Amino acid sequence: MRKYELVFIVHPDLDETAFSGVIEKVRGWVTETGGSVDKVDIWGRRKMAYLIRKQREGQYVLMNITTAPTANPTLDQNLRFLEPVLRHMIVAVD
Fold first, then answer.
1. How far apart are CA 30 and CA 28, in angstroms?
2. Is the pLDDT of residue 77 over 80?
3. pLDDT tens, residue by residue, 67-76
4. Of 14, 21, 42, 59, which is most buried by a Cβ count within 10 Å?
5. How far apart, in whole angstroms, are the C-alpha atoms of residue 38 and residue 93?
6. Predicted model pTM
7. Using one digit for the tens of pLDDT, what is the confidence trace for 26-63?
8. In DSSP terms, which residues pair with 78 in a beta bridge?
9. 3-class DSSP state for residue 72?
10. What are the start-end ranges of the E strands in 11-84?
11. Distance between CA 66 and CA 93 in Å, rounded?
12. Chain centre to alpha carbon of residue 71
């Protein structure tokens, strides 16, 4: 098991329940592969440097997760096809 930081940007027009639903869905994907979510830090709504899917702003979320390296491709694929997520990045923490 390794520690990772997962940062993702969620569509800015989602209401509070849909936004927390996206966070819970990502948390579920991490835990169903045997990993754990250590910390969730919601950075809030921020302006992006360039347009992504015609949006100038996004809701940023940082998750510190512990998971097996073999689970990352599945998590990456799930995040890629989750419609409200504009961008995501998974980085290993030493």
1. 5
2. yes
3. 999 999 999 9
4. 59
5. 13
6. 0.90
7. 999 999 989 999 999 999 999 999 999 999 999 999 99
8. none
9. helix
10. 36-52, 55-67
11. 10
12. 15
